[in-house]
């Protein structure tokens, strides 16, 4: 523990996942203490950021109200500061999106497009509703959305999502990250929350040793591998629990506050 406390002294910025980290995905519950925690971090001169698989559209008002300094969204593909100034963006090439659409349709899979601040579905079925509605509500439907908008991430959605395998012509361009039994994020091959966080660190002149991360799912793997201090929520995926420097309690039991106090950040 002494080594962790010494490393914690180097922390200058903290990134938080949203779902089941800051806020319970299925119920929307967020501890009443969170605004005070973010305010206390600001008073100590510690910057804050959101690092999420959601895009800006999915950063709900109560998260915005915490006034974080940075938003790393769409698994690192679209990054802005608190003034909505773009720090980094990496859209998928339209040719790649077109190939993905053709493959997903041939695989009897629905899909969703992530624009900068909009999520659009190929259809609105029971499978789509079960996976997406708890996060975004009902989505607009437009399978041709990608023809007129930049796409930063896609999602596959089907009852057989765990059986989908990228064709060879796409496997070196994008990768799939499971986040739901019926859905996977489809992101650029080098895309991850870690890449978005690196862009912020470079802008600030900070190193990985200065960053602390809170997360719970497989799209946090690269971020936990980045360096600094990584804190997993108690309900995290087993791989995240294995990678974590520190494991804290659940959202409902004030896990973030407990970890920040245990590590002498607050």
UniProtKB/TrEMBL annotation:
Q: Which Gene3D superfamilies match?
A: 3.30.1240.10, HAD superfamily/HAD-like
User: Which Gene Ontology terms cover its molecular function?
Assistant: magnesium ion binding; phosphatase activity
Q: Name one GO cellular component term.
A: cytosol
Q: At the top level of its lineage, which domain of life is listed?
A: Bacteria
Family annotation (InterPro entries): Cof, HAD-like_sf, HAD-SF_hydro_IIB, HAD_sf
| PANTHER family, per database record | PHOSPHATASE YKRA-RELATED, PHOSPHOSERINE PHOSPHATASE
Q: This chain belongs to which protein, by name? A: Hydrolase
Q: What is the lineage of its organism?
A: Bacteria, Bacillati, Bacillota, Bacilli, Lactobacillales
